[in-house]
Amino acid sequence: MTQRLIARAGLRYWLRNPVQLGLALAGIALGVAVVIAVALANASALKGFESSTRALAGGANARIVADGPRGLSDALYVRLRVTDGFTQSAPVVEGYVQVRGQTLRLVGVDPFAQATLAPRLLAGGVNPAALLTTHNGVLMSAATARGLGLAPGASFAARADGRSHRLHLLGAPGGDTAALRGVLLTDIGTAQDLLGRVGRLSRIELRLNPAQMARVRALLPAGTRLEPVAAVVAGAARVTRAFRLNLLAMSGLALLIGAYLIYNTLVFSVLRRRHLVSLLRAQGLTRGEVVRGILGEALVLAVLGAALGTGLGIVLGRGLVGLVTRTIDDLYFTLSVDHLFLSPWVLAEGFGLALAMVLIAALPPAREAAGLPPRGRGLPMSLEARSRRREPWRVLGGAVLLGLGAGFLFWPGGGLFGAFAGLFLGVIGASLWIPAWVRLAVWLLGAVTRRAGIGVRLAVGGVRASLGRTGLAVAALAVALAASIGVGIMVESFRATLVDWLAQSLRGDIYVNADSGPGGRGFASCFVTAVRGLPEVAYVTTARHGSAQGPQGRVSILALDAASGHHPNAVLKRAVPDVWSKVVAGHAVLVSEALASRLHLAPGGTLRLATAQGPQQFHVGGVFYDYGGGAGLVIMARTLYARDWADPAIGSLAVYLKPGASVDAALAAIRARADLAGVAITAQANGAIVAHSLRVFDRTFAITRVLRVLLLAVAMVGVLASLMALQLERTREHATLRAQGVTPRGLFALVAGQSLLLGLLAGLAALPLGLGMGWVLIDVVNPRAFGWTLQWHGDPLLLVEALAAALVAALCAALWPAWRMARTPPAHALRAE
Question: Residue 453 — φ and ψ, nearest 5°?
Fold first, then answer.
């Protein structure tokens, strides 16, 4: 009976306070939504890559690839299938084409061989033979076609290998068309012709048992290797792990702030029902029943909030998946995913986290309610007294957590997990200190305003009397603001570092790239000679871009041929003596900071790469700063690259002009020489490349900025709920002031002043915590996650924005209680509860 009474009392309380109920549910829902949205977006990006890989591979479980840029010879496939009897095999040619401003993945297959491995791929409404009989016929998913404004039967322009082509859309492939978003499927001969790879293959897909795998490995020539299809998917997950973990950690902060919110909401709900709970205790309600009643309320709130958060997380995830995919595409590998894959496990984990978070946060308020005496009306005062008594223990606990966090941060073997563990422990520890800081600040303010007017003294005294109830609300807002400051400082520091790095790395006046792309035919020698002979040109350096299989996946290669007397433009972090002469002579290579961090490389060490001649060891001469991507970069002499990868072509030029020469005139002259030589190029001035790089950076960090806004949204809801509950809990006090002659305007000024003071204190507390979080993100998390060294760059505007957000949130929290009090007659508010 008594258990039902407390349940009914709880239901009546929440129904009579719909604003508090709505804010509590909103806080839980937002925290859960951010976690679920990020997890779904991460999972969808990987699932999209896996689905695309497996849709094209079908039943194949292995693939043969070349370690050189020219790919495999047709003859190898013919030998394996005809001579050696591996009939469960299919050749594939892959590259990229430009269609109406979009980059699409072109995949050429043998329709008949592919049918043995992936029968669903060509089982759509189009006869596979049409790919063989239609000149430049292609298939693409209906979604891709709609995005390009195309319909089956349409003829459209495309650009590949530096040449323009007319393609004909035959229809859509079969199977999982969502997995083939951004893919053009065609006959292998068409793909070879479009990409300029006649007689060459990108890979050979096979279905093999373990014995056959061993046999194939024994038959492969040097410069080729057999890799499981599963290893390709696992490699994508491995290289993007740090990026995805960063996003999950940021979403975890939203959940942490939600825990503070539910704690404050339940504390105030207990305060407003203290007389009823005391009465029920006098009638025989046990402490255990009180605890179960409060936890039951919390559980209902958690279920409702988590259900709302799950739905909101799915909606939010649909928006985030594009941002996550675009960031992975910019940093790691080409990826086109716009479909959200709903994982039941991710949804269940988010729901379970919400329940656990709410129940843990609800336990202290439940124990407070259970500690109420059977008769008594002095809970606020007793709560304040208990809060003051516990303050030293909270400070001590905060110090312990801060110490543990520092240990994780400075632990050399902690890795990325240790960095985030240290960050979260430090944030929680600092939040336990914030109530003590607020109490000290209010005490000092009270001493300063002792001779001030009655309104000021009432405002300060009211804040001081309620710190036991508002301390953690202030801490929650401070943590959210600090996270916003820390992430903002990290992004601004990264951008400033990128600008400096670009200025030091891009010293050429004009950069010219062959439109044939990496692994393509490159420039004709007559074009390079013509550019060198232009009157505006002082000298030209040549380069070739490639990639190779390293110890932990593929790495990018930049093969340079520096002009006489000029060393490559790389900003060194550390190097062996006389490193430039060793690199130019082909006796050493340079590795990017990210690659050195991931593979634990240092000057004087060696790096093993797969080449066209087989695996080779390269001496590491130095480590250089690089912020161009997450895969890692190796710089070597072009002669060394041409020897080991059998690729002597030139793919790009860096053009240095004579003093006073016009960049526009030189660009026009270079393009004219390209037209005469029949070479398709992309020529850009230095400034245009820098501007494009910064646009890519801003696009890459769009997901981080979105999460920063979501964190602030959760904090705003939290402080609204907490401060609004505080003002509503003090209704009788405000009614007494009204009865003594305080006008509604004066009462509004008092309530707004108290809320603004708490908001200001939260903002001030957030400043050092935010700067500390910025330091952790820049000097600990980024080096461990990506291997990047960032320069510290703090924009004061970030601190001003945080203070403004705190004051706006606090002021908004005061509006509803003040308006309600102004409309409520004092006699009604003073009536006994």
Answer: -65, 170
